[in-house]
Write a sequence for this structure.
């Protein structure tokens, strides 16, 4: 299995934080909606925890989008910040 670069998780955290704030939810509300602990959710947003695929799909549903849309946003953010270095 290919190891995912830590930058990916940091950027994922930035993207889901921005989306969460856009829909007006707190970390606690997001955690409750995802049926996970607030601590775990906060650590995902901080980029220090690696969410499993099921959680990523669920986050997409909470944001009323497909996870592939979030994935594209992450990739664009990385490309904008780091270009071809990543």
């Amino acid at each position: 299995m290919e190891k995912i670069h830590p930058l990916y998780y940091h950027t994922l955290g930035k993207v889901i934080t921005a989306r969460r704030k856009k829909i007006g939810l707190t970390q606690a509300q997001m955690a409750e909606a995802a049926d996970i602990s607030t601590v775990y959710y906060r650590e995902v947003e901080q980029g220090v925890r690696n969410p499993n695929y099921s959680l990523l799909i669920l986050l997409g549903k909470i944001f009323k989008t497909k996870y592939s849309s979030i994935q594209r946003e992450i990739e664009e953010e990385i490309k904008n910040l780091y270009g071809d270095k990543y």
In short: Residues 6-22 form the longest helix (17 residues). The chain has one domain: 6-85. The chain has a mean pLDDT of 91.
